[in-house]
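Researcher: I need the complex structure. Ligand is NAP. Inputs:
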Amino acid sequence: MRLSGRAEPNVFLTGATGVLGARILTDLLRDTDVNITCLVRASSITDAFCRLEKMLRVYDPDLTLADDLKCRVQPLIGDIAAAQFGLEKEDFFRLAAETEVVIHCAANTNLFGRLSTARAINVKGTHEVVNFTLATERRELLFVSTFTVMGDKTFDPDFTLREDDYDVGQEFPFMSYQQSKFEAEALVRQAGERGLNWQIVRPGQIFGDNTHGHYPQGETNVSGLFYDIFKTVIDTGVAFSSEVIFDVTPVDYVSKASIFFALKHRAFGETFHLTNPDERTYSEIIEMIRAYGYDIRFVSQDEYKVMLNERSLVAHGKEYRSATTQAFRCWFRHKSFDFSSSGRVDCSRARGILQRYEIHCKPVEDLIKVYLRRGIGSAHVPTLIQLDI
Ligand SMILES: NC(=O)c1ccc[n+]([C@@H]2O[C@H](COP(=O)([O-])OP(=O)(O)OC[C@H]3O[C@@H](n4cnc5c(N)ncnc54)[C@H](OP(=O)(O)O)[C@@H]3O)[C@@H](O)[C@H]2O)c1
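Model: Output:
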């Protein structure tokens, strides 16, 4: 996406050492000519640079963009949750004067943490980013939210979250991350009254890229829970059946769409859902994996709960433990988490715009093939002789 006809803007990016932010950085380097300042938590500029380079390697394994990283990226040590990012006042305002567009991707993404911790970074941090953006001339902010701001409506089969929706009466029982992102969205929206030119994107469940399945397994704070769910099912040979829509969205779709909205579309005051339009249920996806020859037996949700409680989910004769077994053991304790069915996320506005610019998500079946091939390649999931992928 070369932006012809006007000078390339300077972009200020938060979260560039995370799953999505690192891909946004990679795509900004590959597809645009912008210069980027990345706010990074690090002990020194050298350390910050190394962290960015390590993440670049995830999505650009041959480091073809290494020179661009050196020439066009300025790492800046800071913390979004600190007043003025912990910078000297003078540096903060000089940076604002040099910035044209802000992409705020950093967040505490722990699904099981305390509300106070999530708020300290996601709400306070967004407050700092909003104030920073208001100090820039163009006041343009792309805020990365999440489709899970729908809170407990996630489990309501009669509910559809539309892109214009915000407060739909949702509640957040045991959903501190989701609640903090909802509250952060409120700050962004309200700042419109102070002249903030905001756009919000709400990604779905982020997986590896469309083509290679590149994803930072174990290199970020995110445990790769969505991957771990599949691995656990394959390793144990057991899955519970569920009509919950299980979103599978490739990271490059979210990244390219975010860059497009931030730099090109610039439809201020709008929200876009970056979920995969190919909606599949959890059971359908497990079926897709099973079709490759993996021996997977479906049980009811209740049977699965019992297996978890009795610790009878096994692999190679031993109790099986993973991020997934831990997560479900925790979720099943709360009545509000019922994985029988779910609400829907309508992404038609984003989809309608993005397809005109050839920014696409592969269908889930094709993505599963890419991810299985990659998982097998990295020995993350076991190979099957009959697997011809
Ligand atoms: N992953 C998903 O499936 C998903 C789905 C929907 C929405 N999202 C949203 O997408 C965004 C990116 O998520 P992600 O998956 O890339 O998360 P991630 O891998 O956990 O990365 C989070 C990023 O935020 C940075 N960060 C956290 N606290 C910070 C602080 N106090 N100061 C400065 N930087 C800080 C982290 O830096 P360190 O490396 O220093 O910790 C890291 O770069 C988030 O806003 C998230 O809510 C993600």
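Model: Summary of the prediction. The CA atoms of residues 9 and 100 lie 6 Å apart.
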